[in-house]
Amino acid sequence: MRQFFFSFFSLISFISYSFASSSAGYHEQLVLRPLPLSALLASFNFRSNITVSEFEAHNFRFFPRSLGQIIQHAGTRELHLRFSSGRWDSESWGARPWDGAREGGTGVELWAWLDAETDEEADHKWLTLTNALSGLFCASLNFIDGTRTTRPVMSFQPEGDHIDATDANTHLLYGVLPHEVVCTENLTPFLKLLPCKGKAGIATLLDGHKLFDSSWQSMAIDVRPICPTGGECVLQTELTIDMVLDIDRSKRPRDNPIPRPPPGHELPCNTSKPYHSHDTCFPADHEANQDWTLSQIFGKYMKGTCPLTDPTVPPVCLQVPNSRSVYVSDGVLEKKNLDRVSRCFEISPDTNFEMVLPSPSNDDQVVTDALVKPETPLLYAERSFTGHGQERGGVQTILRNPSPDIEVEFIYMESLPWFMRIYLHTMSARVQGSKSDDKSLIQETYYRPALDRARGSQLEVRMRIPPASTVFLTYDFEKSILRYTEYPPDANRGFDVAAAVITILNKDESKTGRFAAYNLRTTTLLCSLPTPDFSMPYNVIIFTSTAIALAFGGMFNIMVRRFVAADEGPELGLKLLKSKLRARIGGLFAKFGKGNKTQEEQDKVTEPGVVESKE
Amino acid sequence: MSAQPPSSLSTDDAPPVAVTNATSELKQPPAEKPSDIRRRGYVILSFWLIVLLLGLPIWWKTTTIYRADLPLQEMLDWSDGKACRPVFPLRISIQANSLQDQEAQNLLRLTQHALDDLNDFAGHHLRLQLSPPLGDEATSATNNGSALTIRLSPGEATTATLDPYEPTLDITYPPNNIPSPTASSSALATYVASQLRSTFGEEQATISYLLSTNSMPSEHRPLGLSPETVESLAKRTTRSLKYSPTYHLTFSLFTSGALPSSWDIETAIEEYMKPVLDVLSPIHNFTIDTQVQLYAAPGVQNDVLQKQDLSSFINAAEWPLSPSIGGAPTINFIVFVGNQTIVTSPESESSQSWLIPQWGTVYLLSQPWDTTHVSTETLKQPLLTFTSHLFSLLGTPQSGSLPLRLSTLTRIRSADLLLRASSTLGSLARLALALPSISIPSSVADGVSKTMTHLRLACDNLGGLDGLEHARIAEAEAERAFFEKSMVGQLFFPDEHKIAVYLPLLGPVAVPLIMGAINEFKAWRKRRREKAEKGAEKKKE
Q1: A196 vs B21, B294, B512: nearest CB
Q2: Per residue in A228-274, pLDDT tens?
Q3: Most buried pick, A268, B114, B145, B524, via CB within 10 A?
Q4: Average pLDDT, chain A
């Protein structure tokens, strides 16, 4: 518990410290935090400022020009863009980095405050913004259209200092692309935005292979105006990359990446189990594999520091208990922080930085202290589909408040695609253990229904969860049937439903000045809709055509044909051919024959043919 | 099928002996009532009427591709240069304060003669006029209409100098050179004419080159451009950017290391470039942004850059030189801090900068390795280079004084835009003719009519800023019409699709309809023939 508080305070002090240093031009910092289950959280943070006057004169120095132009062109006051993939395992890894403020749901998430007189103008600017960002970051952001855009009412508050934040001319728009696969092509433009590119400083450690191989990663771009008291307002770009690396996987050599089981004697076993013997092993994975070096994890050394960075901010910090020994390369100064669970490294500009973290000694006491105990998050959330069939379904979100004595108040926001039609009356929240739903849990609901093919539904719910309890929030929905052309390629995979955004309200806003105490997102869902057979239109055309042709032909013939007895009608088909042939042959006989044949005889020849045809 | 053989009517009363046909032994159905025959006729007729009067129009209405009416012939006329003959009437006023009115008139007449003799290109015509002597206000008033003022003043010898700040040609002449009223030629007049011709020679050559590269009919096409002139003009036109009312200038400081990381670009631009931009402001607007990029390795690492290295020097993959958003084209000016030099050939001197056609300029600035800040003085030379390159990127002619070059630029740009818009119209017309299944939305027709209105206005006002503005609108409208999005999609709707959709339905439906119609027609003809035979028999009887 003590450690928990220490790390909590260190985080708070770190955040407030970094906000205080906002007037400096540029700084970057990497925070490494080993996590349980042989994971390592690496948080890269790059922050560059531009004064408003320089921004308006288009003189870009640390602030990326490409981004600056887009922001100016689209009249953007504040911008937040997230690229994420993977899942944060909060059960074992604890609270999210940055209190969840620098992450998005799986895929791409974008929200921005735009300057516009009317809603139409805001939509137009939003279109410009998404298209321009799509080009800049090589992402399909241009697919954020009206159906994927919402205007959240309660969930978001501007982070920056706006002179007229509540102005009617400031529009908040939020768009999300859960299907987008974040990959290397998004990282390259991200690195281009940094003043030192990937050539010096902590950014040299960023590598597409490692970043997108991680268990969870989130890239964030935040642009906001900051007005320090008594100074000129600056526009701040903050680029953040958080990733959770699997140490085992990262240590695999790149030329031999196929995982192989280690030999039996190398398995880390929990020797405290009573059944532990030479052929029985309970894997001791909690503290296992906590020895690593920087170059093993990232595949390379860190090349010096970026010369532009603020020298007062140490470029690399490591959060392990002070009792653990860490070896670093020459020319690096290690400074242990007062909170006893973190240390920072001062690196001279031209040193290649390497860090070795040996495995903790075998003494049991030390092993348990090898890691900083993860902080418990304020809330756990899980969302899943319920129900079955292609017509209806339900969504269930399980929200758990782990704290024994503090009530949690938060806003739960869903932006659902239009083809999921919510039955709002079925929405209910109940505490685990009780059968009926508890009306006091849901404080306020904002619902904006979907319009088919025009906009998605938006649901924002303000809830309060009592201490140490689990709440089930459920609602039902109906699946609509899409038009033939509206199905994407590989429609049988299903349709991604964006993550729900949970914003835990900061009760004591005066303390840290932030609106949200903690943010978290559930995982995305995959909704399967009734999918047609895509050769259907041609089948339908052929089938209906055949039916119509049959009906028409029959009807037409009935109306037009004359009905006569079978022996009265004209001969048809083979019989006609036969009789014709016979007549022809008969005619030949008549010509070349004896000539004295009478008319009666001729008649006799033809008579059997007629009889035959009657049979 | 319902036709009754004529013999069947008479089977009962005629002996079978009379029948020679083998099938005649069949039992014949009873005669059909005439009302049944009529009814069958009506049934078939009504089916056909429904198909023709209802089905066909509905099908036509629902599947027809909308093609707005385009004035195709007029559009082709524009692109062939038949609709507009670009003529630049340039008025040149002569200010001869020291001459008598009579003498001045005479000189003017003789000079005009000499000019007309020299000029072989009808599209570019210089017309002299006498400006009212003295009075600065009056002069400036007439200056608005004239492209150049010739200021004649008596002097020691015959000299000509262009005023660097105003569109004025100062000519001095010895007093005895004034032509007598009766003279048919004069040395002074010829001299003035040749001076004028050399002043406007480049403009004339450029315009005639522009006309010749476009599909102008041969009678308007000026002759007499030497291949060398054509080559240099071609080089210059490919170098210049497409006309736009606004250009976006991006000044970038690139360095391959960490230093220098700041520069005094704002004051440097203010000092060295702003005056030129102000002069250009009637023709173009400029927006400016600057950036500093560190750790930007060039595409070529050699210390001495050969000519072939220059094209790969810009590291397009890594350098953030994305064009600015918004409609304006971007001109890049790059200062690269490094110790590279350019040696294009062994004997030539090394240079510092080069121009990339239609893109911008790179200037190599060598600085001590520990420079952290690039000062305004250091930036003087790069910015002056940029300024001169800006002129060639904008397509400004090289000779003459600045005001003259700018007015020439206006005329060249108008001609260029006019020709461009006309040729786009022609392409659109040819496209519409070549692809009969392409849809033409009404917005295209709208754009075409707007283009033609503005083209007409531009053609009538060629030479002035108005003409330029109209030509610009015309060009923009023509491009918009040509690149209309909804026109492109229709191109890829193949005929096989239509067959696949129509055949299963229309085949089985059409066969009974057509067969019914044919049979009914045959029966009708048979009945008529029979009637005719019967009539003939009756007549015989």
Answers
A1: B294
A2: 887 788 888 999 999 999 888 888 777 777 777 777 777 777 777 88
A3: B114
A4: 82
A-B interface: how many C-beta pairs under 8 angstroms? 136
Option in B22, B44, B287 nearest A583 (CB): B22
In sequence order, what are the beta bridge partners of A356? A293, A327
Strand pairing partners for A339? none
Query: Cβ of A562 and B505 within 8 Å?
Result: no
Q: Tell me the sheet residues that pair with B125.
A: B89
Most B CBs within 10 Å, among A303, A545, A591, A613, to test the B interface: A545
Nearest CA in chain A to B324: A69
Question: CA of B240, closest CA in chain A: separation in Å?
Answer: 25
Find chain B residues with C-beta within 8 A of A124's C-beta. none
Q: Which secondary structure element, helix H or strand E, spans residue A15, and what is its range?
A: helix A2-20
The pLDDT > 70 percentage for chain B reads 85
First to last CA, chain B: 32
- Tell me which of A53, A58, A237 to substitute to probe the interface with B (most B C-beta atoms closer than 10 Å): A58
Q: Which CATH class is domain A380-497?
A: mainly beta
Query: CA of A148 to nearest chain B CA: how many angstroms apart?
Result: 24
pLDDT bin (cut points 50, 70, 90) of residue A9 is very low
B517: closest CA of chain A, how far (Å): 10
Band (pLDDT 50/70/90 cuts) for residue A410 is very high
Could you give the CA distance from residue B199 to residue A79 in angstroms, rounded to a whole number? 56
pLDDT in tens, A106-152: 999 999 999 888 889 999 999 999 999 998 898 889 899 888 999 99
Geometric angle at alpha carbon B265, from A25 and A59, rounded to 5°: 45
CA separation for the pair B119, B525 (Å, rounded):
81
Closest C-alpha to B370, from B264, B261, B283, B474: B261
Answer whether A66 sits within 8 Å of B259, measured CB to CB.
no
Q: Which of residues 257-286 of B touch A (CB under 8 A)?
A: 258-259, 261-262, 265-266
Instruction: Sort out which chain A residues have CB atoms less than 8 A from B507's CB and list them.
Output: 549
Q: Is the pLDDT of residue B14 over 60?
A: no
> Residue B416 and residue B424: Cα distance in Å, rounded?
12
| 3-state SS track over A517-540 | EEEEECCCEEECCCCCCCCHHHHH
Q: Residue B448: is its pLDDT beyond 70? A: yes
* The two three-digit tokens of residue A293, written as one number: 């070096």
A142, A206, A550, A562, best to mutate vs chain B, most B CBs in 10 Å: A562
For B143-200, write each residue's pLDDT tens digit.
Answer: 456 677 777 777 777 777 777 777 777 877 777 767 666 666 677 777 877 777 777 7
d(CA B108, CA A228): 73
Least Cα distance to A501 among A71, A96, A19 occurs for A96
Tell me if A565 and B27 make a contact (CB, 8 A cut-off): yes
Report H helices in B214-251: 227-239
Query: Which residues, including other chains, have CB under 8 Å from residue B457's CB and lie 6 or more apart?
Result: B466, B467, B470
**Beta strands at B330-337 and B360-365: parallel, antiparallel or unpaired:** parallel
**Residue B69: burial class (beta carbons within 10 Å; 0-12, 13-18, 19+):** exposed
**Shortest CA gap B402–chain A (Å):** 29
Q: Tell me the domain boundaries of chain A.
A: 2-21+33-256+265-377, 380-497, 531-561, 563-615
Asked if A397 and A430 count as a contact pair (C-beta separation under 8 A), the reply is no
Confidence band for B25, pLDDT divided at 50, 70 and 90: low
Regarding pTM above 0.90, the answer is no
In order of their start, the domains of chain B are 6-61+496-540 (no CATH), 89-213 (3.40.50), 244-394 (3.40.390)
Task: Tell me the longest C-alpha to C-alpha distance in chain A.
Answer: 140
